[in-house]
Amino acid sequence: MFDFAQARTNMVDSQVRPNGITDARIIDAMSVVKREDFVTEAQRSVAYMDGDVPLSGAASPRYLIEPMAFARMVQLAELRESDRVLDVGCATGYGAMVLSKLVGHVVALESDANLIEIARTNLANTINISLVEDTLALGAAKTGPFDVILIEGRIENVPEALFSQLTSTGRIIAAYGDRDVSKCCIWTVAGAARTLRSAFDISIATLPGFEKPAVGFAF
Fold first, then answer.
1. pLDDT per residue over 86-117, tens digit each?
2. What phi-psi label fits residue 78: left (phi over 0), alpha (psi between -120 and 50 degrees) or beta?
3. Residue 208 is assigned to a structural domain of this protein
4. Residue 13 half-sphere exposure, CB side, CA atoms within 13 Å?
5. Is the pTM of this model over 0.85?
6. Which H or E element spans position 148?
7. 204: closest CA among 100, 38, 40, 53?
8. Beta bridge mates, 183
9. In terms of residue numbers, what domain contains 82?
10. At 173, is the secondary structure helix, strand, or coil?
């Protein structure tokens, strides 16, 4: 019988701790949230692998992003217990569950009808998570503003709609680029000013709906 508790411990010890995760709250949260509960029965044995796990049933390719990358993104956000966080592309809910153990409230946003039904079951008993079904690039304006917006996948463009949903000192965390190895970036705002900082290399699957705007021909 597969020992999921040991697999979870191994994930933390081999993928999370050695990759610069110094926030003990993140380590504690990832030590208790059961990744195997957020994939299909057939995928449970690979839930803790060092890589993205493909999710079955989605209309377009979607993934449970690799533990190390997710942990580093969360640490970059410098979360506070009072923060209100928007988790964009929550898929089956793993990331939202981890975040819920670190902050005051999580709004988990998903657009895929099949995935959101799974997330609804997975997150049903967590009182500080709200699940929203909508287009990912539009965010969740009705439930904002947010101190942090974390995007669970690689994107090529940050829609203006997301910036408009930040608090006056908010931040957006995302893997940004059009190649397999991209940059994990943090956008911070201070009033009307915005700052972009590239933090580290990251390789996670693309999140659909955030492609670069098409450039028209000029005559």
1. 999 999 999 999 999 999 999 999 999 999 99
2. left
3. no
4. 6
5. yes
6. strand 146-155
7. 53
8. 176, 201
9. 4-202
10. strand
Alpha carbons 43 and 151: distance in angstroms, whole number = 23
Report if residue 17 sits inside a domain.
yes
Supply the pLDDT for residue 16. Answer: 96
Find where tokens 């999710």 sit. 55
* Residue 217 belongs to some domain of the structure: no
Residues contacting residue 92 through CB under 8 Å, at least 6 positions apart: 38, 39, 55, 64, 115, 118, 119, 122
Which CATH number does the domain housing residue 38 bear? 3.40.50.150
The per-type count for the chain, helices as H runs and strands as E runs, is 6, 9
Q: What percent of the chain has pLDDT over 90?
A: 90
Task: Report the b/e string of 11-34 with b at 16+ CB within 10 A.
Answer: bbeebbeeeebebeebbebbeebb
The distance of Cα 26 from the centroid of its chain, to the nearest Å, equals 13
**Based on the structure, what is the number of domains in the chain?**
1
Q: What six digits make up the tokens of 151? A: 């995007």
Cα dihedral value 15, 58, 3, 122, nearest 10: 100
211 within a domain of the structure (yes/no): no
188, two tokens: 């911070």
CB 39 within 8 A of CB 63: no
Q: What is the pLDDT of residues 175-203, one digit of tens each?
A: 999 999 999 999 999 888 899 999 999 99
Tokens, residue 5: 């508790």
